[in-house]
């Protein structure tokens, strides 16, 4: 499989395969990981994407021992990619998972851009592989008490301050440590997915088990989303520092659900905390 040179090339090939069907949505993932894991992860992903329209780029981060992995892949393959990342590089940090629109704008093309010098995916799978089952899910973490339906915050800072106070009561951690963790993660890249959804998250050293909350804002909040849309709904996720694999599994689950247009429509139609809870548990 030769690397795709542009988003338009990928879209053309997909239309040629299924002209009468609805176009398949693509997803861009940006992941930061230690450079020593890059070769094995590249090979594993190359095997998995042998028969799909994937594009991959690995770029070193100057002054560090890390690299940035950028993946462009079909939406239904997000779980496979996240499972591979968690198996090969459990300390990896998912910077962004965003869904591309059917007709990408220049800004979206820039987000998903690939270059002629980028890596080619030529390997073919040698043995079948199935992703492992995640250790936990959003369904298990969320409770009715952790769903806010009309949270009124002025912006990003106020949101993190509220989340820190809320989770401090549940976890026994200092609110300042939680807020600092959320801020640090956000500085490395926006956790907004687009379409008005976001997943602010971080890993904390003294946290013993993952916790999550769902919030719907009384007024939209600007979180520098890749599609420039303000955020209306968000899942806030805290995970223990040692639970790298679990962290990736949870992010994959949440991001894939938010990338589903039908699910977003059902969720936006929920007017009460109970209805939101039932929708998320379905």
TrEMBL record:
Where is the PTS EIIA type-2 domain positioned along the sequence? 140-282
Q: Enumerate the GO terms in the molecular function aspect.
A: protein kinase activator activity
Under what name is this protein listed?
Answer: PTS system, nitrogen regulatory IIA component
**Gene3D superfamilies, from UniProt?**
Mannitol-specific EII, Chain A
Residue spans crossing the bilayer: none
């Amino acid at each position: 499989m030769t690397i795709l040179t542009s988003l338009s090339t990928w879209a053309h090939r997909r239309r040629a395969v299924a002209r009468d069907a609805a176009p398949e949505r693509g997803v861009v993932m940006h992941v930061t990981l230690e450079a020593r894991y890059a070769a094995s992860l590249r090979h594993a992903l190359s095997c998995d994407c042998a028969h799909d329209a994937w594009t991959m780029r690995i770029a070193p981060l100057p002054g560090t021992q890390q690299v940035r992995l950028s993946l462009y892949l079909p939406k239904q393959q997000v779980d496979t990619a996240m499972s591979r990342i968690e198996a090969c590089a459990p300390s990896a940090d998912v910077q962004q998972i965003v869904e591309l629109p059917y007709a990408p704008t220049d800004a979206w093309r820039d987000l998903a851009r690939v270059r002629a010098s980028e890596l080619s995916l030529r390997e073919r799978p040698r043995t079948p592989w199935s992703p492992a089952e995640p250790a936990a899910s959003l369904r298990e973490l969320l409770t009715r008490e952790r769903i806010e339906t009309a949270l009124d915050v002025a912006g990003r800072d106020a949101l993190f301050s509220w989340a820190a106070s809320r989770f401090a009561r549940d976890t026994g951690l200092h609110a300042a440590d939680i807020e600092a963790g959320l801020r640090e993660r956000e500085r490395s890249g926006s956790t907004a997915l687009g379409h008005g959804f976001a997943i602010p998250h971080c890993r904390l050293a003294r946290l013993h088990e993952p916790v999550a909350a769902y919030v719907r804002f009384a007024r939209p909040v600007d979180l520098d989303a890749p599609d420039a849309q303000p955020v209306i709904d968000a899942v806030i996720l805290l995970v223990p520092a040692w639970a790298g694999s679990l962290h990736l599994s949870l992010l994959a689950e949440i991001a894939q659900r938010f990338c589903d247009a039908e699910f977003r429509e059902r969720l936006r139609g929920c007017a009460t905390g109970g209805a939101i809870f039932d929708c998320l548990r379905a």
